[in-house]
Amino acid sequence: MANQLDPMDIKQILTLHLDGYSNRKIGETLGISRNTVNAYMKLFNACEYSARELLELDSAALAELFPSHTTIRNPRFDELMMYFEKVNHARDHPGFTFLHHYRDYSLQSREPYSYTQFMEHYNRRHSKTKGSMKLEHEAGRELFIDYAGTKMHIVDRDTGELRAVDIFVATLPYSLHTYIEASLSQKREDLISSLNNTLGFYGGVTKAIVCDNLKSAVTRASKYEPDINRSLKEFALHYNCVINPTRAYSPQDKALVENAVQLAYQRIYYPMREMTFFSLGELNREIRKRLVDFNDMLYQRKGASRRELFQSVERAYLKPLPETPYQMKDYLRAKVQKIGYVYFSADKSYYSVPYRYVGKSTLIHYTKTTVEVYYSHERIATHPRNESKGLYNTVKDHLGSTHKVYTDWSPDYFGKMAAGHGDNVLACVEALFIDCDYPETSYKSAMGIIQLHRQYGSERLDNACRRAVYGNAVSFRRIRNILEKNLDRADPEDALPGGIKSHIPFHENIRGPKNYK
Questions:
Q1: Counting beta carbons within 10 angstroms of the beta carbon of residue 343, is it exposed (0 to 12), middle (13 to 18) or buried (19 or more)?
Q2: Rounded to two decimals, what is the model's pTM?
Q3: Interatomic CA distance for residues 350 and 385, integer angstroms
């Protein structure tokens, strides 16, 4: 089965290419076939955009430029790779031969490789990893991260209950400059918060972040093609780096951070063993104090400390930080309602989108500060997040023409409309808003009065309003009755008994919007 290459993976190929990685190294880092990387690099070179311009395109644009190229899941090859794990477990057994295992493999496989191909694939995958060797690390190339196996604790001040907290450890393998902090859990949001703090601590970004197969980082663990979760991919794109999980059950792939964890036990855990902390902030403040001494400790062989090696050499190789730290995104699906809004269930509120998307299914990307609405990988609306429940958050340009007019309604708006039909019409509309704490309640009445000119003309409407003002009977229903019974043509004083004018104060006898039907 073929799966289309994720646009985020395309951007990671571009990122590693700009960092000087070879096509083979890009494939190894991302778990993608080298031939696939070669094919994409040819497309990049033939494209009218530069690599940096391609990185700035959104996912929809990339998918349009590179729609048909895929990575292939090869069950035959995967079966062989899994069988090699069985071979590796038997390597040290007396009498081991590859020929014996090839015969066993060929008997159980429906479509076995030839013996020559069997040995070629094995040597490519495993011959260089046999035994142990000292790795030379490039400055600024990788950041190793892990969680300590032993937890620390904070105390609930009210109940005295102990709460276990995780200890996040990160180290740069060239200088061994180390960052440590406590977090409430290893969940995705806590992991990303710790990574943000780590890169802020170093003041720069490495080309790759090497992590264990954490559930919060890896959707599907694999020795060959682990799937990085969407949030971590977006984090990597934000910081212009890549996430590179180690092989499952292979702690030697990140031996330096494993060693940093052991040193943390000795130089941070042990000196703090008798201290009590009542909050995560208190614990992290103490850890940061101990971390200064940890990084300032002198290497006897190198004649410098971790901090000195970092400041004098490695810091210059780090990429610059972006202007803002990454904010973790979450996702919700929502259908655009007939009124042009999507329902945002996280806050039980509504956000507008352009009116032409009514009835479409969309994907909402949201952070603590922003709500973005996407349709078919294209961002169609962006709003600052408003956590108040039940509110309609509106961008005026999103609304249809009739809805835009509705958002303009105000006492001044109706006053300007009424003035075009006569002074008495204006007086009636203004009377609706006298002593009105919430003018929105009179908007419909005002609009109803003004719209009567369509049926009766402006002159008759102005006369009817003169009669309503004279009788202190300003309401849509009263003015409509005057026009229906042709009372606008009679003398206003005929409306009162004996021709006596009313002395009731004008504003006290004004009927409110309850009279509107």
A1: middle
A2: 0.52
A3: 10
